[in-house]
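Q: How would the structure tokens look for this protein?
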Amino acid sequence: MNQFNTRNLALAAASALALSMAVAGGASAQNATTTLRGSVYDGQTAEAGATVVATEVSTGYATRSRVGADGRYVLSGLRPGTYRVQVTSADGQTAEQTVTLSLGQVGTLNLDVAGGAAATGQATAGATELGDIVVTGRRMFEVRTPEVATNVTQQQINNLPQISRNFLNFAALAPGLRVTEDDTERTISAGGQTAQAINVFIDGQNRKSLINDGGVAGQDDSRGTPFPQGAVQEFRVISQNFKAEYEQAGSAIITAVTRSGTNEFHGDAFVFYQDPDWVAQDEISRRRGAEKAPVRRLQYGASLGGPIIQDRLHFFGAYERKDEDRIAQSFLNRTEYNDFFAADLGTVSTPYEQDVFFGKLSWQIDDRQRLELSTEYKTEEDIRGASGQNAPSRAARNNGETQAFNLRHQFQGQHFLNEFSIDYLKSSYEQSVINGLDYGREYVIFRDDSATTPGLQYNINNRDSTVFTAGGRADAQFLQQKSTTIRNDLTIPDLAWMGTHTIKMGAKYSMQNYFVQKDFGRNPTFVYDIEARPEINGSRTIPVAVNLGVAVPPADVDNNVIGLYIQDDWQITDKLELNLGIRWDYEDNAVNNDYRTPDSIRNMLAAIQNLPGYDFPSYFNPSDYISNGDRKAFKGAFQPRFGFSYDVFGDEQTVIFGGAGRYYDRIGFNFAFDERFKPFQFNKTIYFSNTGGPRGGQQTIAWDPRYLTPAGLDPLLAASPGAGEVFLVKNDFEPPRTDQFNIGVRQKFGRWQTALTLAAGHTEGESAWYIANALNETGGRFNGPTPGSVGFSQFRNLIFFQNTDKERDYKAIYLTADKPYNAEDRWGFNVAYTYMDATQNGSRDNGYGAFDFDYNTPGQSPKYRSSTDERHRIVASGTLGLPADFLLSGIVTLGSGLPYNINDCPNAPAGGPNICWNAGNPEKRAFFPGFNFAYRQVDLRLTKGFDVFGGQRVEFIADAINIFNFTNFKSFDTGFNNARYGAGTEVYLPTRSFQVGLRYSF
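A: Here is the predicted structure in token form.
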């Protein structure tokens, strides 16, 4: 890497941090607070010189602000919650109001010392419980923000139905977002993009997955939750137009704030249980005649918070445990071989365990300073991989661990607010082999290599399908990300110039480490001809080959990340407000910037380029990919962002809003790791036959049963050279970026808030691997000169290079209506409708390890629907208080379904395979007559509460998930000429499931 540039950039970031801290003192992390602003009057006259104090009802923490000459005030850095707001004029007059503020909100409260207070626009009642006392405050609506945002309250988190206690499930309540669940993980996608494009913040701490897929650290390949739900106070989903303070996301931001202790001791304990008999069998296994694969789930936990020193120092802690036992089924699609595999078929238990701890201390040092320290520890273990066409012996153990610390300090000056944080995050994922002493066995069917020649023409590399695998798994891996991040945000409110400005600026410096160790193919796997064709070996017990990978040293990489931003919330008039901002991000080692291309690869590329009559296609220039260890880091990640809101009548009833912005994301290290790893990941293959000699296009060795033992096999493998693959990362890599645009209108109708938004986005720069040594510009991907043809047999035939020409386009309409639940009428309802049109070109793969074997470049592929393009989606949720202290809540999810490929497509574009990418639409079925959807799910929860002595409460809970047992297919028969074309072949979870729970609180 360029040490001079790195040091200077690091110094610049450190200087920015030091400057803002010298001006202001310490602070609290971004994305975890709210703001209250307004004007103070004495009758019709603006009241200058008054003092406004907002006291958090539950803790007694107080925040002060002076009223400006124009009568305006701003209280920044408030925790979400209920506040008693009091203004005292210079001559001693007072006014007071109690309000409830949500996360990320800018609420407006005007106060009149002559006649009390009035919140501009409407508000709904909210409540904060303090022992036997219930303090009710009006919940403030935020309507003037240019952001397209949805707040999910603690009432919704606690009372809406779900099985898994993962608070991120409720992100689906926001327009444009989709939460997808299967039996191994849960992913969130937004804006027509993949899960990698989102980012999650918890108390301002960035939880981005820095190495692998999933978007959220610890969420990829996990059945669990990334954070204990009982420790979440509320969260906010920003679907579009997030401000400059937010980073590393191209589609949506989710920011959550955790619970804190209060002046009264409070706590709860819960247990939820699901019995195997309470889960319905899925349609596909029922059709197959298989037994139901039951699931047993037990979840329990507790939380406790309270005062250490009244009004000053408080604590909070939470613990949650999840035990899940899912029965996996091993079965054959080719049932004619059932007898041969009889010992390997059937069911096996695949348990999952997770423990999550969270603790927090909150200290109001004085009226100007607040300090918070929190920590989280999560561990999980999952047994998986023993299902479908895999025997129980193929099971692997997946372990995950997360450690997090977050120290935040807030200082409220006379005319500024400073927020400082330092946090640490370590998240690891490990996949290990359980049956490592048992060699692997793969049973395959070979395809005839020549349809015009009589008899089977055997080619060992021409396989039709894999029927079944058994024995020990071959692959293991360990991935770990660590980061220590220092962040400082300075807010200067109420600056007067052509209106009122609230300036916020910030800097971050993150020291990151990525450790990746992949032991692929380290357990030998033997390949067998299941048909026992006489043209091959005539036996199911004599293998045709064995594969083994060699050990490769792990990658241990440091990366320094810098982020700077400034934004201005400019209130030009009482009706018009602008948000102007710009952000800049920098990483000094995001894509192997310190990596030197080995001489063997340099020489191989030169040898191919010097072949007579051949040159690499124009889209691949080797010099753009050969690195001397000094790749220049991208410095152009400037991201201007603009938003506006216009209050048509000045009463916050009708507001027009909109905005545009550029958002740079990042690429997970798993992609660039292949450049370091693949060339040295030598996969050794030895071929066998009955008698030895040439067979199936390869030189074979006569089979001997002793080769099934290490003593017999090791000498053969030692004599086999093996071969790796060449992967080349672009020297001038630019991370993916999205340009977003939106315009909309918000309208209040009494206690209802509605919004209509037109949204659009354009994404460029996503990475995928393409074939460099193609024979020509538009084809011949597998026919060009190979490394072996120029004397470099240590490399396999294909050379892969990074291409970033992929593009996505997104157009959407969001329609939302929200009536929050309140204690007065005991009901709440919200609905979000999304229409989207998401298209793309390039690779169809969705993860960081994306390939394209069908086109030479993204520009040669057709434009087609993205795999996340669900044209219509409706998510409605509600809560209704019933007599006798019953509470009924529910979520209804309806969608047109995700598209699928059509093989043997009569309308396939010319120049590519005979496939119409994502052109198939799932069959729609009636939700009720005349209202048809491909995805249908109705979830209900019924809660019965009992108030017992001393303010204690006991609740009995019953959940019914997918209560009508709708079958929602996620994969389909894609062959256009097949009799079952379009029929479902795999289903989304859950099927109909029941769960009971008990919750005690005080």
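The first strand starts at residue 34 and ends at 42.

The mean pLDDT is 91.

Upvote if useful.
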